[in-house]
## 1
Amino acid sequence: DAGVIQSPRHEVTEMGQEVTLRCKPISGHNSLFWYRQTMMRGLELLIYFNNNVPIDDSGMPEDRFSAKMPNASFSTLKIQPSEPRDSAVYFCASSLASWEGEVTETQYFGPGTRLLVL
Amino acid sequence: AQSVSQHNHHVILSEAASLELGCNYSYGGTVNLFWYVQYPGQHLQLLLKYFSGDPLVKGIKGFEAEFIKSKFSFNLRKPSVQWSDTAEYFCAVNARGFQKLVFGTGTRLLVSP
């Protein structure tokens, strides 16, 4: 398996521009997670989906951030308009969650998108 | 809500030294526990995990961790580190039955040759 695929790997943009980050989860996984990593705040969960449905978006910083998962093999995280404080590494992770009994699962991370907003 | 504390932010060791990285969590219920590693410029990779059973868990590359429920701890150990172990190590926990994974702030390990 190719693992979790993210694109682009690097993005440099100017303040005010729209940024779209893309993620392809591992085939067969039914849960997808978006994280942001910064020096100041470490790794933060932004949002996650189960079976393409957003479950918890409490980590999304503000209305400028939005995420979609139109199908089981694709998700986007959009920032509009972007600001310098959005500069970070954005990771996507996926897992195969089972709800038969207790949930025990491992999240597998993609290589990340390093975003720089000037 | 769960929280995870990694008290050592930076650790510097010489090759062949023994390693122990601390991880404590706060949550009263049953948890799943993970250690992830992030090599320079790379993504997070799973080192090991604990769901249930033997509290001493062995992972890849000679790492192991011990879950001590009474201490709410899941410390990572390796008897003899190598230069290639230079990386950032993250402890993470999720409450059993919930998917949200909470990460510690990470420990940067530098192993000098």
Note: Chain A touches chain B through 24 residues (CB under 8 Å).
## 2
Amino acid sequence: GDSVTQMEGPVTLSEEAFLTINCTYTATGYPSLFWYVQYPGEGLQLLLKATKADDKGSNKGFEATYRKETTSFHLEKGSVQVSDSAVYFCALSAGGTSYGKLTFGQGTILTVHP
Amino acid sequence: DGGITQSPKYLFRKEGQNVTLSCEQNLNHDAMYWYRQDPGQGLRLIYYSQIVNDFQKGDIAEGYSVSREKKESFPLTVTSAQKNPTAFYLCASSIDGDRTGYTFGSGTRLTVV
């Protein structure tokens, strides 16, 4: 079945450091890929998405590129801020009989210190 | 503004009781979903509905029930058959999950006392 694997966390960085959170996936066909962010005590917010190979999603300084050859969708940001501290989820939607259903990774906790 | 409203934010249940979590959306989305979130386990799909009066079981439906009598509403009942109901419950909706992703509510934290 479909699955998403995120890098083990938690991740702790200093402000202005470079961020990478790895995400790899297993799916049949051509899934759409997403990154969501969850702040403490809240629901998830869509951060960025990519719907086909080589697409780059970007938002609020975060970027991720859909790499079909390596089945990856790694999240990057060049300079993190304290306000970026949150839990980040990678997810895929495989379409077909799974239409509209998202499969999530386990989440990566990011803490940014001043 | 359009969005998804979940209520209550916190809910306490005694053992053996059924409780119902509310989820209402005014986004005119056809599809709605319920997920359960436990620490370190990500999100697991409980039930989903792609159209009014129709719904399907997700990966962990045992001990839960839903209804979809109106497009705007998708309540989740946690029954006494659910052996470990303490968790954070998230409701979501989408117009086209494959391409646009979901809009999530702010969640309900259920605790068994």
Note: The mean pLDDT of chain A is 92.
